[in-house]
């Protein structure tokens, strides 16, 4: 194997974390902000790009890191290396309620395509790159689905799905229509495109967006019930509005309470 061979265990139900066991000199890479805890003999190091070592030249590293910027990710990733002489553990937490999905790339023919913000961590040696769209429609209308990440190699990778996870096995030619934000990822032979919802009533009053993704088999597709964009939209909609008031905004008695109790915040 080119990637480090790691063991793991996923804990929790709604707010999961993955504990990865590293043999001496084994390492795992992760997105910034996903780290939870680690043993004392694990060395943490910030690396430029994904550290896959496919191109060790300066220009190669800059190009690898630059492509990550296109997906909205940081130029840097974090590597965790076991420098001790015994097995050690390092853990990474999911960013919001959902499920952590283990992806064995050796069982996916060396490639898995996922949403740009789904990647959590992977064995050192796995390449995290971008999957460019070859179709113009995806670029203009794909939203989260325009530029996706591709995970390549023969090691373990872990992605995060918000809410409840659905796994669909598509037969050859079978089509699944999905909200673009609800796609977690799919295997490399799944054909992906953007389609217009259609219909005046659907367009104006549907409330589901103008476009959805069509996924054509064969292959495996992972779908999430709660994409982060939807969660953030609901939180923003429920947040108190009106110049920084901090009580009563969300209730019918909010303004009446200010009158009765007095509001001296002028």
Q: Features of this protein?
A:
single chain, 266 residues, alpha+beta, Double-stranded beta-helix, 6-stranded antiparallel beta sheet, 5 helices, globular
Description:
17% of the residues lie in helices and 39% in strands. With 266 residues, it is α+β, with helices and mostly antiparallel strands. It has a single domain, classed as Mitochondrial biogenesis AIM24 (Double-stranded beta-helix), CATH 3.60.160. The strands form four sheets. A six-stranded antiparallel β-sheet has the order 5-6-3-10-13-8. Strands 11-12-9-16-19-14 form a six-stranded antiparallel β-sheet. It has a four-stranded antiparallel β-sheet with strand order 1-2-7-4, with no helix packed on it. Strand 1 and strand 2 (17-22) form a beta hairpin. The longest helix has 13 residues, at 58-70. The model is unreliable at 139-145, 201-208 and 248-253 (pLDDT under 50).
Question: How do the helices and strands line up, and which of them pair or pack?
Answer:
Layout: E1 7-11, E2 17-22, E3 27-30, E4 35-38, E5 42-48, H1 58-70, E6 76-82, E7 88-93, E8 98-104, E9 111-114, E10 119-123, E11 127-131, H2 136-141, E12 148-152, E13 156-162, E14 165-170, E15 175-178, E16 183-187, E17 191-196, H3 200-205, E18 211-216, E19 219-224, H4 228-238, H5 254-261
Antiparallel strand pairs: 1-2, 2-7, 3-6, 3-10, 4-7, 5-6, 8-13, 9-12, 9-16, 10-13, 11-12, 14-19, 15-18, 16-19, 17-18
């Amino acid at each position: 194997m080119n990637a480090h061979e790691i063991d793991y265990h996923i804990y929790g139900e709604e707010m999961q974390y993955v504990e990865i066991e590293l043999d001496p000199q084994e390492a795992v890479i992760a997105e910034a902000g996903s780290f939870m805890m680690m043993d004392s003999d694990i060395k943490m190091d910030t690396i430029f790009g994904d550290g896959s070592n496919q191109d060790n030249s300066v220009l190669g590293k800059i190009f690898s890191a630059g492509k990550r910027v296109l997906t909205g990710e940081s130029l840097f990733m974090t590597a965790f290396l076991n420098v001790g002489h015994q097995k050690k553990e390092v853990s990474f937490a999911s960013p919001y309620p959902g499920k952590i999905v283990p992806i064995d790339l050796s069982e996916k023919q060396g490639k898995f395509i996922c949403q740009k913000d789904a990647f959590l961590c992977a064995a050192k040696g796995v390449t995290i790159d971008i999957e460019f769209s070859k179709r113009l429609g995806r670029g203009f209308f794909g939203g989260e689905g325009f530029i996706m990440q591709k995970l390549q190699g023969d090691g373990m990778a872990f992605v995060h799905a918000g809410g409840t996870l659905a796994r669909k096995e598509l037969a050859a030619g079978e089509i699944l229509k999905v909200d673009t934000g609800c796609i977690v990822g799919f295997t490399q032979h799944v054909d992906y495109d953007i389609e217009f919802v259609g219909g005046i009533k659907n367009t104006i009053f549907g409330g589901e967006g103008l476009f959805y993704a069509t996924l054509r088999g064969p292959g495996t597709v992972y779908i999430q019930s709660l994409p982060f964009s939807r969660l953030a939209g609901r939180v923003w909609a429920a947040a108190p509005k009106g110049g920084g008031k901090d009580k009563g905004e969300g209730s019918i008695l909010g303004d009446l309470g200010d009158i009765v109790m007095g509001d001296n915040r002028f």
